[in-house]
């Protein structure tokens, strides 16, 4: 399987988890932006970076931290390890 297909599969799994938690999600496919999934609920917003196997590097984590977001937005990273059923989650502040 190529890396693009693996990344897309991980993004869709993250979307399924967020939607089950009551969020409406959109995927920022091929945007080359900071976040891969944007999830919105009636009370807050989640900006999610999705990675496979590795956490984002220091430069990418700094870009996530410095991204200007509304007060009610949470910035999180989902790391999907191979064959994992749930991601490892880090909240970035």
Instruction: Work out the helix count.
Output: 2
Could you spell the SSE succession in H and E letters?
HEEEHEE
Number of beta strands = 5
What structural category characterises the helix and strand content?
A: alpha+beta
Mean residue pLDDT = 93
Please outline the major beta sheet.
Answer: 5 strands, mixed
Q: Based on the structure given, which CATH architecture is correct?
A: 3-Layer(aba) Sandwich
Helix content: 25-40%
Report Rg: 13 Å
- What distance separates the N and C termini? 34 Å
Overall number of structural domains: 1
Output the strand order for the largest sheet. Answer: 1-2-3-4-5
Question: Residue ranges: pLDDT <50 for 5 or more in a row?
Answer: none
Structure description:
The chain has 93 residues and is an alpha+beta fold. It has one domain (3-92): 3-Layer(aba) Sandwich (Trna Endonuclease, Chain: A, domain 1). Helices cover 29% and strands 31% of the residues. The chain has 2 helices and 5 strands. It has helices spanning 3-20, 58-66, and strands at residues 24-27, 37-40, 45-52, 73-80, 88-92. It has a 5-stranded mixed beta sheet, sandwiched between helices. Strand 2 and strand 3 form a beta hairpin. The protein is globular. The mean pLDDT is 93.
Helices and strands, with pairings:
Blueprint: H1 3-20, E1 24-27, E2 37-40, E3 45-52, H2 58-66, E4 73-80, E5 88-92
Parallel strand pairs: 3-4
Antiparallel strand pairs: 1-2, 2-3, 4-5
């Amino acid at each position: 399987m190529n890396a693009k297909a693996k990344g897309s599969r991980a993004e869709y799994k993250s979307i399924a988890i967020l939607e089950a938690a009551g969020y409406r999600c959109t995927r920022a496919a091929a945007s080359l932006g900071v976040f891969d999934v944007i999830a919105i609920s009636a009370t807050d917003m989640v900006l999610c970076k999705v990675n496979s196997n590795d956490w984002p590097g220091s430069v990418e984590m700094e870009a996530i931290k410095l991204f200007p977001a509304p007060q009610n937005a949470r910035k999180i990273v989902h790391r999907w390890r191979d064959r994992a059923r749930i991601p490892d989650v880090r909240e970035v502040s």
